[in-house]
Specification:
The complex is a heterodimer of chains A (257) and B (248). Chain A has 257 residues and is mainly α. Chain A has 2 domains: 162 residues, no CATH class; 79 residues. Chain A has 9 helices and 2 strands, in the order ααααββααααα. The longest helix of chain A has 32 residues. With 248 residues, chain B is an all-alpha fold. A two-stranded antiparallel ribbon of chain B has the order 1-2. In chain B, strand 1 and strand 2 form a beta hairpin. The longest helix of chain B has 37 residues. The chains are: A mainly alpha (257), B mainly alpha (248). Chains A and B meet through helix 2, helix 4, strand 2, helix 5 and helix 7 of A and helix 1, helix 2, helix 3, helix 5 and helix 8 of B.
């Protein structure tokens, strides 16, 4: 979980990580909107391939990419089955299942393929964004886009302390496992409850220490974010070109005939 | 809904019942909801977020360390929501929502705020959920989960039920409420020419093998955690949930 959740790869220096986070957020959002508005599978598939190839070109481990892409595929499988067999009217093929016969329809399979391609396309864009932009830069950019101060402050605290508490949880769980804390279902649930309770108590203690440390460093009820560097001409050009390219791609292949 | 359509949905639901999807699938993935539905759920989630942020501001003015407290408790709840729970019927590990536990600790409005942050982090770094489906996920997990959990906890404690059975009910109902609303969100957006009710039923049945036991297990873990906190730090839960937001 630690390595899956960490922004370790986003902190590496490369051509994409050097781009301003505001530019990346605007381009990623445009790409996702184009993908979900698309009525043809061509655009989502093109975006998916482009994102995955870029991700792999940045030397992100294939296992990490596969692990992150695996999560949404569960719901896609369910919805693809439902849409293939329950909507539409033109029969494609049938599967006997006991007393019933399941019939997949042309319209249903098309709807399922479109949904699956949209999920793959949109998820791959978010994956690429998260692999080239550290979390604190995303939060800073969100503040620039006028996301409320309180929300961004809580988000930064949550992200910062998630790793500390993940470490604590792993230590506690390992200690319990060594003491047969997970031998049997009842004992396992009791052990999990103890871990959850301890994590909450420690988080409250840590909150007191964190607040004191922040006050000592001049905290006055607001984390100062400071101004972001001004957008340079190159950033504006990259944003404009990428957005126009995506809109042209959407106009060309995003709408089914 | 014709008879033939109903007879079609039954075997599909049975097929999905036999091969249950993971519980992480209860986050609606990026790209699943069509744009108008994604926008609608986002608009519906905004008033609750504003309420939560207002609550945060008011309580922070009364208790200066309240923001740190919410951030850290939010991180703890997020970590708990990542803990794997083995679900016997699915044969896999799933993870709890933990919104019931969060609502007991800091109240439902603030739970919506920390849920929205947790969902954004999960969308960005775990590919659970998504940016365009954030509104729908906030409504199902944050709003439905938190308010159902908090409501039943308050009702049970008001009726004289002791704290840890009430916590069990909060964990159980917050999970099931999330699951029901997610099924409705998916069905309303994707039912096509099938009826909304039957599609909702088919999706709900598909997730039953995972979510019903997971809800019970989440209830047990929530109760065990509350019992542990009450033993080790008596009064902490009550003091966290007071309007002034102090710490015992």
């Amino acid at each position: 979980m630690f390595s899956l959740f960490s922004d370790f790869f986003a902190c590496r220096d490369n051509r994409f990580s050097r781009i301003d986070p505001r530019v990346k957020l605007v381009v990623a959002t445009t790409a996702i909107i184009c993908v979900i508005l698309s009525t043809s599978v061509a655009l989502p598939v093109a975006v998916f391939l482009l994102s995955v190839v870029t991700t792999l070109a940045l030397r992100i481990p294939v296992r990490l990419v596969a692990l992150r892409l695996a999560a949404p595929l569960g719901i896609v499988a369910v919805l693809a089955l439902l849409q293939s067999f329950t909507s539409g009217s033109t029969p494609l093929w049938s599967v006997p299942l006991g007393a019933w016969t399941l019939t997949a329809t042309r319209e249903g399979v098309h709807a399922a393929a479109l949904t699956a391609s949209r999920v793959c396309g949109a998820v791959s864009v978010v994956l690429l964004l998260s692999l080239v932009t550290p979390a604190h830069r995303i939060f800073h950019a969100l503040r620039w886009f006028h996301v409320p101060q309180g929300w961004v402050e809580i988000a930064m605290l949550m992200y910062r302390y998630t790793f500390t508490l993940l470490d604590l949880t792993a230590d506690l769980t390992a200690a319990q496992q060594l003491r047969m804390g997970y031998a049997g279902a009842g004992r396992a649930l009791s052990s999990m409850g103890a871990v959850c309770g301890t994590v909450i108590i420690r988080s409250v203690d840590q909150a007191i220490r964190t607040h004191e440390a922040m006050v000592l460093r001049g905290y006055r009820q607001q984390i100062p974010f400071g101004p972001m560097p001004p957008l340079v001409a190159q950033d504006c050009c990259v944003t404009g070109l990428a957005v126009v390219a995506l809109l042209l791609l959407y106009a060309a292949v995003g709408r089914a005939a | 809904m014709t008879r033939s359509r109903v007879s079609l949905l039954a075997p599909v639901a049975l097929l999905l019942f036999a091969f249950p999807p993971p519980a992480s699938a209860m986050h609606i993935s990026e790209g699943i909801l069509p744009a108008p539905w994604a926008a609608l759920w986002f608009v519906l989630s905004v008033p609750f977020l504003i309420w939560g942020l207002h609550d945060l501001r008011v309580r922070s003015e009364r208790e200066p360390m309240f923001k740190s407290l919410v951030g850290l408790v939010g991180a703890a709840v997020f970590v708990i929501s990542c803990m794997p729970i083995p679900v016997p019927t699915a044969g896999t590990c799933s993870h709890p929502c933990a919104t019931g536990m969060a609502a007991i600790l800091i109240g439902p409005a603030l739970t919506v705020v920390i849920t929205s942050i947790a969902l954004l982090l999960q969308a960005l770094f775990l590919a659970h959920g998504g940016l365009t489906t954030l509104g729908a996920d906030i409504v199902s997990m944050g709003v439905a989960g938190a308010f159902a959990g908090y409501g039943v906890f308050r009702l049970a404690t008001t009726l004289g039920v002791s704290r840890w059975p009430a916590a069990f009910l909060a964990g159980l109902l917050s999970d099931w409420a999330t699951y029901a609303i997610t099924s409705f969100e998916l069905a309303s957006a994707l039912h096509g020419n099938a009826s909304l009710g039957q599609t909702f039923l088919a999706i709900a049945v598909a997730f039953c093998p995972t979510q019903i036991p997971l809800g019970i297990l989440e209830g047990i873990v929530t109760a065990a955690a509350c019992r542990f906190i009450e033993k080790r730090r008596p009064g902490l839960i009550a003091s966290l949930n007071q309007p002034h937001g102090g710490v015992a």
